[in-house]
Design a protein that fits this description.
The chain contains nine helices and 13 strands. The strands form four sheets. It has a seven-stranded parallel β-sheet, sandwiched between helices. A two-stranded parallel ribbon has the order 7-10. Belongs to the NAD(P)-dependent epimerase/dehydratase family. InterPro entries: Epimerase_deHydtase, NAD(P)-bd_dom_sf.
């Protein structure tokens, strides 16, 4: 089975590609802007004809789209998250119409949740951030244009290799720098929001199952831990692993990407039914793996 992973050199893409390589008989190919990818591809800029040529050369049985922008200016977000999936669908129709498409969406597409109530896929998508809106546009494009496509709406991924642009990755770097200095001060934003944190390795497993499960899948499946915890709990859990002895300086108000959403949790029962998937790792597992991975990068 030939599987093409777009964005296969990024954070999620690396974990996804590694898990897919463990599938019996699978040949994993990567595509993206990185020189490390086997095929050059830029979903933000490539015309459909060029992308179709890339797909024809790769001849995939399945395509996994891990490419996406989590931050940046509005044009960048729209080009990568909205235009990209639409162009990909057009290219697939031309060059690989029988290939299954597995696309990584985001729980941010739902917008604010109701405390205590996990959000099912049937809930209205009402994003309140530009990031969520552009991810939703990509989901709509796939639902309308990919006959054998599924969007995995991922919660907040945590685990080894988390990039500095993410809160877990940035916090791990800050804690590694602070060491056990009792005078250290960590200046962070508001940590009171509730989020559904899912281990990145569980996300990769969900993708693998979405690739190999026979028959048509539901158009959207939530992938999360199925429980909401405060961002503060994540931060303190990571600090405990670091032996942090300093103090926190927590400001009020979140980032532009997540600030308007104070509570978010996904109902993951549909993924359990459709894929036989459920998370195998706890938040503690994810934080332990994240902290261990940061130690491996220190000279």
């Amino acid at each position: 089975m030939r599987i093409l992973v777009l964005g296969g050199t990024g954070y999620l893409g690396r974990h996804v590609a590694a898990r897919l390589r463990a599938l019996p008989g699978a040949l994993i190919l990567t595509a993206g802007r990185s020189p490390a990818a086997e095929f050059g591809a830029d979903l933000a800029a490539d015309p459909a004809e060029r992308l179709a040529g890339t797909l024809a050369a790769a001849a995939p049985d399945a395509v996994v789209n891990c490419a996406g922008a989590t931050g940046g200016d509005p044009v960048t977000l729209a080009e990568v998250n909205a235009r990209g999936p639409a162009v990909l669908c057009a290219a697939l129709r031309e060059a690989a119409p029988a290939a299954r498409l597995v696309h990584l969406g985001s729980a941010a597409e739902y917008g604010p949740g109701v405390p205590g109530t996990p959000v099912p896929e049937s809930a209205p998508a009402c994003p309140v951030t530009l990031y969520g809106a552009t991810k939703l546009a990509g989901t709509v494009a796939i639902g309308a244009s990919a006959p054998d496509g599924v969007v995995l709406r991922v919660g907040n991924p945590v685990g080894p290799g988390a990039p500095p642009a993410s809160l877990p990755g940035r916090l791990a770097a800050l804690l590694r720098s602070a060491g056990q200095d009792p005078e250290a001060v960590l200046r962070l934003g508001d940590l009171s929001a509730h989020r559904d944190f899912v281990d990145v390795r569980d996300v990769a497993q969900a993708v693998a199952l979405a690739v190999i499960t026979p028959g048509l899948l539901p158009p959207v499946l939530n992938i999360g831990a199925g429980k909401a915890v405060t961002v503060r709990e994540l931060a303190h859990g990571l600090a405990g692993r670091a032996g942090f002895r300093g103090r926190w300086a927590e400001s009020v108000g979140g980032s532009a990407r997540s600030g308007p959403v104070s509570w978010q949790c996904s109902d993951i029962s549909a993924a359990q039914r459709a894929l036989g998937w459920r998370p195998a790792h706890t938040l503690d597992d994810a934080l332990t793996a994240l902290w261990s991975a940061t130690a491996e990068r220190v000279p």
